[in-house]
Structure formats: C-alpha cells, structure tokens
Design a protein that fits this description.
Blueprint: H1 14-33, E1 37-38, E2 44-46, H2 47-54, H3 59-64, E3 67-69, E4 75-78, H4 83-92, E5 102-111, E6 123-132, H5 137-153, E7 159-165, H6 169-182, H7 184-188, H8 192-200, H9 211-219, H10 229-245, E8 249-251, E9 263-271, E10 278-285, H11 289-292, E11 300-306, H12 307-316, E12 328-332, H13 338-350, E13 355-357, H14 364-373, E14 378-382, H15 384-389, E15 391-396, E16 402-406, H16 410-417
Parallel strand pairs: 1-5, 7-8, 12-13, 12-14
Antiparallel strand pairs: 2-4, 3-4, 5-6, 6-11, 7-9, 9-10, 10-11, 14-15, 15-16
Helix pairs in contact: 5-10
C-alpha cells in the first residue's frame, strides 16, 4: 500500500497553495503597517519551556504535546503554540528594552496531538502577533484592532470579538474558591486525574464541553465581579479604546483561555458566516510570562490566528480566489525549432511572464494537449516557416485567435496580451 500523509496532517497541493500564499502575504503586509517585524523560531524547543508557560495541567501539556528525547538525552517538544518560543527568543537575544515595546509577528506550524476534525489538525498553522513591553490598555486595543482588521482585509466581515478579563492573582484566588464550591459535587464523580488538574487550575472547568459542567458554569457569577481595582480600570479603558477604534465587541465572561500564562485581558474572535459559531483565533495579556522564563518582568499581549480556520470560512464564502494560470506554453512545430523555443521561454521568464515548454519534445498536437493540461492561457508557436521569416505565432488558447509578431517583439507582444 502506498504511504499516506499522517493522520491529522494535510498536504498543501499546488491547486491550493495560492490560498495560503495570499493569506500569509496579507498578514505580513498588514502587520507591517503597524510596525511588527517577523520572527522565526525553531520547530522544536525544550519541553520545560511549555510546561512552565502553558501549565502542567493544561491539555496542551498533559494530553497534546509531541515530545521526544533527542540523541543528547534532552527532553524536547514540537512547539504546540507560538507565544512561548517568541518570548524565549526575545529574552535570549535581548530584544526587550525598558521603555521601548517590541512588536513581533510570526507565521509558524504548531503541533498538537488531538482528535482531528473540521479546522482542527495535529499539524496546524498560525499567524501571530506579540506586543512585548507595554502595560497600557492601548497595547491590548492595538492587538485586537489589528486582528479584527486583518480578518476584514481577508473579506471576513461578520466576525465577532468576544472579550473578558480574568484579573490577577488576588482575583483568581477568590474566584477559585467560588468555582470549586460550585463544582464540589461534580468533581466527586470525576476520576482522580481530572480532579487533581481541576484543583490546580479551576478555571479550566469554565472551558469544559461537558453539558453538566456547562450548566454549573451558567450559574456562576462572572469573574468580572472579582477583579482587582487596577484590572477593572484596565478593562474599562480597553473597552473605551475599542469603541473609539470602531471595533465591535461583546463582553463574554465565559472566555478564560486554556493556558496558564494569561493575565487580565483575554479574547477570542469568532465567525458566524458558516451558520455556526467558529472560533478563528484567541489571545490576551501575559504579563508574567517573560519573568517565568527567566527574563525581566515584562508586560505583554498577543494573539494567535489559525490559518486553517480562516481558509475554511474563506473557501465556503468563495473568497479564496483561483490559482495563477501559466501565461505561455511555447510550442515547437518542428524539431529544428527546439533551441529557439527554449530561448523564447527564457526571454519570457526574464520579462516576468510565466512560460514553459514540452521537455519530451512531442509532436505539435501533443504539445498543445500539454498546454491545455497545464492551464496555459496562450501558446507561442515556432515552426520552420516562422524561423525562416523571423516571426512567432501567439495563440489565445481559449478562443483560438492568433497573431504573428516579429521574433524581436515577441516578449513585448506577449506582455501586451496579458
């Protein structure tokens, strides 16, 4: 049996690659408008990097991490998210300077061993932003504004920003007791591992998909009622700034995010354009992350946006466009014209016109079939008569219309047809 791609990992074929290229190009261009510079981090990192940042009770660490021991005996992991590696790199390379925020963007694969599904792969891809070094609500607002406008730039206009604040240590300590009290009976019926993780991080219960847990969550007071004064003021200011920027949002107390490093602001962007609520991305503030990694205390905020999720919506809405077609297939009507065919193809490419020819030197009819299979828009034909008269026949392959042009003007004429 022939080999297949691993379960939960997809091949991106030439017929689809243009979608990815467009989405990534739009992201790089959009992020650049706000001064974000691209960073590229390794595909694998030390395992402990993610334990320390995501939290040992998170599903990412406890269930989904692709981990391995390398030949040097080091415990490593394929990165399951992009923020921790970016923060590690910023600390390692001394990018963080007091009073000077660092704006980083990235395009990266991520790896999580979960159940593959619609828009959910084991090897997925993200674009992301990290704004490192500012505690201002302006930083939170900028990240959310850039994110919302990026989706609009892709044509996804019906997106919803869902916003919450999970406060700081005091807030979560008080809310922890509220959650554990409400879930006391529920936890008695769960296995030991689940109870242990819930006791370490009760907020994960709010994100549970279990209907029984969801019913309990519905009866909880919002965490917003327990915010410290500073966090409440920060959250209020953020809402003012988003309204000023024209970013529509709703306060959603059920959003807590699944990673331990979040503080204060957390948010998600969802789309209902497929008739169902589909989460496109999530992010928030992580002021303790740099310190947890051995760096200086550094307030930061960021977002990670799933590429596959965005493409899923774009495909359904027919926003992805079509792959670029080959401009010219250069055809030889006689073997004597083969050197001239190769030369013309090189001249067309040098002028920015995509062109190819038949490598197997088939008969003219076979070459024209190859041109059709390649999806070429035009054919440039050279035969014995054309060589003698110093001309090239340019044929439109959709309607058969053609014209003769001098060989010296063939490249110029070809560009004119495009």
């Amino acid at each position: 049996m022939p080999f297949q791609s691993p379960r939960g990992a997809d091949d991106i074929l030439p017929s689809d690659a243009h979608k990815w290229l467009r989405l990534e190009a739009e992201f790089r261009s959009h992020a650049g408008l706000y001064g974000y510079g691209e960073i590229r981090t390794p595909t694998f990192e030390e395992y402990d990097l993610f334990v320390r940042t995501s939290g040992e009770t998170s599903d990412i660490v406890s269930k989904e991490m692709y981990e391995f021991t390398d030949k040097g005996g080091r415990h490593m992991a394929l990165k399951p998210e992009g923020t921790a590696p970016a923060a590690r790199a910023a600390i390692q390379h001394s990018l963080i300077q007091t009073g000077s925020p660092v704006r980083l963007s990235y395009v990266t694969p991520i790896f999580r061993y979960g159940r593959p599904g619609k828009g959910r792969l084991r090897e997925a891809h993200q674009v992301g932003l990290e704004l490192i070094g500012s505690s201002s609500a302006n930083a939170d607002a900028e990240i959310i504004e850039v994110t919302a406008l990026y989706y609009q730039r892709l044509g996804l206009n019906a997106v919803d920003v869902r916003l919450n604040s999970i406060g700081r240590q005091d807030c979560r300590a008080r809310y922890r007791e509220v959650v554990l009290s409400a879930f006391e009976s529920y936890l008695k019926d769960q296995d030991e591992e689940f109870r242990s993780k819930s006791l370490k991080n009760p907020l994960r219960l709010i994100d549970s998909k279990d209907p029984a847990a969801a019913e309990i969550v519905g009866s909880l007071p919002p965490i917003l009622d327990y915010l410290e004064p500073e966090s409440a003021a920060h959250f209020s200011r953020l809402q003012e700034l988003l309204a000023e920027a024209g970013v529509k949002f709703e306060v959603a107390p059920d959003i807590v995010r699944g990673l331990d490093y979040y503080t204060d602001t957390v948010f998600e962007v969802t789309s209902s354009q497929l008739g169902e609520q589909l989460s496109l991305c999530g992010g928030g503030r992580y002021d303790n992350l740099a310190k947890d990694l051995g760096g200086p205390p550094t307030p930061s905020v960021g977002v990670a946006m799933g590429i596959e999720r965005a493409l899923l919506v774009m495909d359904q809405l027919e926003l992805s466009g079509s792959a670029a077609r080959l401009d010219f297939y250069v055809v030889s009507a006689t073997p004597d014209a083969n050197p001239a065919v190769r030369e013309l193809a090189r001249d067309l490419r040098a002028a920015g016109v995509s062109a190819t020819f038949d490598l197997d030197e088939r008969k003219m009819s076979g070459q024209l079939k190859q041109a059709d299979r390649a999806g070429a828009r035009f054919a440039a034909i050279l035969g014995e008569d054309e060589l003698q008269r110093g001309v090239v026949v340019l044929r439109n392959l959709s309607d058969g219309q053609q014209q003769e042009v001098p060989r010296a003007r063939a490249t110029e004429a070809a560009k004119g047809l495009l």
